[in-house]
Amino acid sequence: MSLAPGVFGQQNAQGPPRPQGQSPASSARLKSATPQTYTAEQIREGEARFGAQCGFCHGKDATGGESGPDLTRSELVAKDDHGDKAGPMIRAGRPNAGMPSFNSLSDDELNAIVAFLHSQMDKFAELGGGRRSVEPADLATGNAAAGREYFNVAGKCSSCHSATGDLAGIGTRLQGLNLLRRMLYPTGNRNTATATFLLPSGEKVVAPVASEDDFSVTVLDPLGARQTYQKSAVKVKIEDPLSAHFDQLGRYTDADMHNVYAYLESLK
């Protein structure tokens, strides 16, 4: 079950508006408006079913994943009474917002998922504080114009990336901490590094890198088996498309990071 921001009433995911300058962590969390009781068996079944079908997007504990929002702070779940609002939403889905329909769920299965959602919402509400994760608002302190300047000039990010190419719409696909993580640690293509060896025999070997340390490099042969070479015994050159990102970590100031984040967040 994948929900885009705005589905399940996420427009005001932190509850009532907070006074200006007040930390999100000090705002009260949403909780079920109508007291509801579910059996332990229902909640356990709902946890397993939610984890299997919804956890990839929303996290197994329903507090949000890379592409799905935190359902423990959903206004619709808070206002739901034994599935009267959440149930129809889950069955019908919101395909235009990225959420498929789940018409095949039986009434018992649907009720179990609803029971789990209410159980999670009320559990986290009891912990106090407004949240247990970093909010997009916490990161939105940068200047997008300054971030664009850094992206194109100082950081030289535009030598590999394009706002109208590979990064087009990234501010819609990723929000908050997920966007910052992707910006700082883009591990999705981590296995694209290649090593070129010149062996003592004169043979040249080019292979994908499996791992590397200060003394050795391990590569994958054509059959996928690992081969380790000592750097002291061979001449090796490693080309890693992500190395520029790791080098950049040592140069970023806090202002640079927040400015670039603000620029990427603006690429809708």
Total separate domains: 3
H/I helix tally: 11
Supply the CATH class of the largest domain: Mainly Alpha
List low-pLDDT spans: 10-24
Report on this model:
This protein has 268 residues and is α+β, with helices and mostly antiparallel strands. The protein folds into 3 domains: 10-17 and 26-133, Cytochrome c-like domain (Cytochrome Bc1 Complex, Chain D, domain 2), CATH 1.10.760.10; 137-187 and 245-265; 194-239, Roll (SH3 type barrels), CATH 2.30.30.100. The protein has helices spanning 40-53, 55-58, 75-79, 86-92, 107-126, 136-139, 144-154, 170-173, 176-184, 243-249, 254-265; strands at residues 194-198, 204-212, 216-220, 226-230, 235-239. The protein has a 5-stranded antiparallel β-sheet, with no helix packed on it. A hairpin with a 5-residue loop joins β1 (194-198) and β2 (204-212). α7 packs across α11. The longest helix has 20 residues, at 107-126.
Please give the structural blueprint.
Elements: H1 40-53, H2 55-58, H3 75-79, H4 86-92, H5 107-126, H6 136-139, H7 144-154, H8 170-173, H9 176-184, E1 194-198, E2 204-212, E3 216-220, E4 226-230, E5 235-239, H10 243-249, H11 254-265
Antiparallel strand pairs: 1-2, 1-5, 2-3, 3-4
Helix pairs in contact: 1-5, 7-11
